[in-house]
Amino acid sequence: ISVSYTQKAFFKYVYYKPTKVMLLGSAYSLSAEPLASTATLWNLIQVSFSATSPVLSLRERFPYFYRTVYSDEAANDPRIALLHYFRWSKVGIIYQLENIFSEIMINEYFFGACEQYYEVMSKLRVSLSEQKIEIAGYEGFRNDAYGAVRSLKAHDARIIIASFFEDKGPPIICEAYHQKMYGQKYVWILLGWLDDLWWDTNVTVRSGNCTPKELIAVISNHFMVDPVRFADPNNTLPLGKTVSQVIAEITDRLGYSPLPLGYYPFAYDAIYAMAFAMNDTENRLINTNKSIADFYYGDKAMANMFKESMDNVSFHGLSGPVSFKSTGDRIGNTKIYQMQFIDGISSRVLVGLYRNLHKEIEIYDKDIRWTGNYIPVSTVRITVQVMSIDLSFFISACAVAALGVCLAVGFLLRMWLPVTGFTLAFGTMFAKTYRVYRIFIGSRTNKKVIITDTQLVVLVGVLLLIDLILLTTWQVIDPPDI
User: Sign of the CA dihedral 16, 20, 24, 28?
Assistant: First the structure.
């Protein structure tokens, strides 16, 4: 629904009798935000059953806004708990640049002279940093996810949290396919309210084309976090009927079964929450001889009484326990699903539950399927481990090694020793003979010839050097067989 249509409908209703006391809706975040701002000026409590934008939690901007559906921000704690459970210490984030997903930027101009930027960082990003989880890329995109996906790939993001509307999902996943970001190394964590079969389409992106089968290759076995939509079927509701009886009654009145992922349980509980708040306010007004029928749009005092009553609402509804935080957000539990594909057919499997009140996560490991049949790691792990061996074994091994060295030296000397021994024996004899020869030759010519012992040693050394060169060359080129 467009913002202009929503605003037009609002003004139409407030200008005609009877005076409205509270508003139910709007269903969409994009129209709920401006409506909440306008309703505040009219001192009207607004209760939405399907607007999930985290922006609506800003109490200073929307003091009279409440919702029985969970804020998208409520998915942060379950996602972080999921990361801790599987010991994933590094995660990449990619999100569509919409207020419902991204950071909030408010620009203000003062007399046209200066511009100030106020940036409220994503709660998820801050929470991850507080939990010592490394952020391997924090990428936003508006229409083209090419650069954002490539950046995640460059940062080696393997566990990826993605937030987007259904129309932007296939282009992101297609870019990831062309970047080969799929298989047993990768896990995607998405929001649970995406339409079924959002991936069942052909898509063309900057990197190329993708078929549904190729998209499934990327998101196979991905996780989803989704609020609990129904209480236990046997739980009793305020009017004394059970959850199953109310669902059967709604089905009978509609003439068909409502969608299992629809928002009607939250709408049902929103109406009850408003009724409880009005009833409580009426009882409090009895002592002042007033009634909620006396409310007018300028009556800020009664509007604050409505607000106090809404803050204190607590009952078991169709979607489970209903109560509100100081921000107007619903307090409740979150289910964790895994989308499993078998022969191209998808199955939404419940694999865990996160209890928000106690900050506890329960994972049903036996129901989880992993690509490659093992839990992937978020980053390459380098483990340094000091290992030791028994001292007696070490001494035995050293003794055997020393024996081996001696044997090797022995076999080596068997080839080298005869050659070097021959050279030393006959080399020295040759050197002495050579000296005698030079002396006799010198006497014939009446020349005094002196050949020192050092010169003879050098001569023998030259002969040994020749042996060394020949033996080494032989050893390298054609080692002998032992």
Answer: positive
